[in-house]
Amino acid sequence: MNRREFLSKSSTIAGAGLVLGAPSVLGAAGSANDKINVALIGMGKQGRVLFEAMSNIPGIHFQAVCDIWDYNLNSGAGKVRALQKHMPNRYTDIDELLEKEKGLDVAIVATPDFWHSPHTVKCLDAGLHVYCEKMMSNTIDGARAMVHAMERNKKLCQIGHQRRSNPRYRYTLDHLINNNKICGTIVNINGQWNRAVSSSQDIQYKKSLAIDPARLKQYGFKDMHQFMNWRFYRDLSGGPISDLGAHQIDVFNWFLGCQPKSVFASGGNDFFKTREHFDNVMAIFEYDSAQGPVRAFYQVLTTTSSGGGFYESFMGTEGTIKTSEMASGSAIYRESSAPLWDDLVKRGYLRKKAAPAPAKKSDGIASYASAAPEEFAIPGVLNKQPHQNHLENFFAAVRGEAKLNCDARHAFESEAPIFWVNPSALQKEPIIFTPEQLQV
């Protein structure tokens, strides 16, 4: 995406007060040959988020829905019926769905992490293109199996690192960091996802809606609490560092264009004492990037939302870019010693923000030994749903109109270091990566 396309798709439309995207799936579809038949595998919270994002994309027909919980299955099917005016076929078992459904093109996999790899591999082996939520798997071997299945079947497999299709991120990388090098030399990266304790509580359910114990056991859950809270368990997920941290650490690796050479992590159950995964994790990655050495610090907390929520901050000798999915969480700062950015502002690459008020003498010791950095912003506002651009890229690739922004192989290369954060924290030791630890 070039600067003109980004600006035309953001500021112009935002200025008109419109939401990007087509209003109706079937109404916007072209001929029958344009229709893409989709199976929705997993209709829990994340499955519903993806469905809502897809509801604005033309030419999609939701043919079948699968979920082991009748509550999710029926509510998800109801949402599909409300959108496309007829009920999709419903299944509790993916094998039965793949055996009976004819004419499917695509599967959207939004099941718990430990099912991502088995479900994705089944669908790829059945000849479907797959969009699967991140992390790819709860194990690095599970992620490897997905890459092998994608390449063995010569099908598309996009992993849900949606920032890779976000125009704000792509514009920042392509035009501000790479082409205009406004950060100078990046020497440090800082990222976080801080979530409030109130948003990290056990997920509850109505006892009358509980799944039959035999069905829970069949699909790998010991009880209903574990089914609702699978992210707490080491055999079922990677915990907060993969559930939340994977978003930002993927951006670290994507923007630098390389994998880290080591990780040293610390973690603990500092508040949620009985959970298997750490509620508080900090990790330091070291990189030998093309521009030189870079150190990156990442923290994920499930005990406080303070400190700015979630973002990634790329800090260089001439400027810092703070990126986030939320425009309000993004900012760009010029070091006082860096060349002026007036030309970039004049050409529309940046928008200068008002200078901060000088600190009062009563504030105590001055915060800056030199002048405070000037603050800038990216012009324009994006108001699509967070996952929509990434799904649009996937369906455009299915139609042969685009290349995937995050196929399984590239996602694996970015996710591989994340699998080693918890082992480092458990061992209380740094891990110097070997090629075998990071390669498919």
From TrEMBL:
UniProt KW Cell membrane keyword: no
MF GO annotations: nucleotide binding; oxidoreductase activity
Residue ranges constituting the GFO/IDH/MocA-like oxidoreductase domain according to the UniProt record: 223-321
Oxidoreductase among keywords: yes
First and last residue of the signal peptide: none
Keywords: Oxidoreductase
InterPro entries linked: Gfo/Idh/MocA-like_OxRdtase_N (IPR000683), Gfo/Idh/MocA_oxidrdct_glycsds (IPR050463), GFO_IDH_MocA-like_dom (IPR055170), NAD(P)-bd_dom_sf (IPR036291)
PANTHER family recorded: BCDNA.GH03377
The name this protein goes by in its record: Gfo/Idh/MocA family oxidoreductase
Organism the protein comes from: Oceaniferula marina
Native organism taxonomy: Bacteria, Pseudomonadati, Verrucomicrobiota, Verrucomicrobiia, Verrucomicrobiales
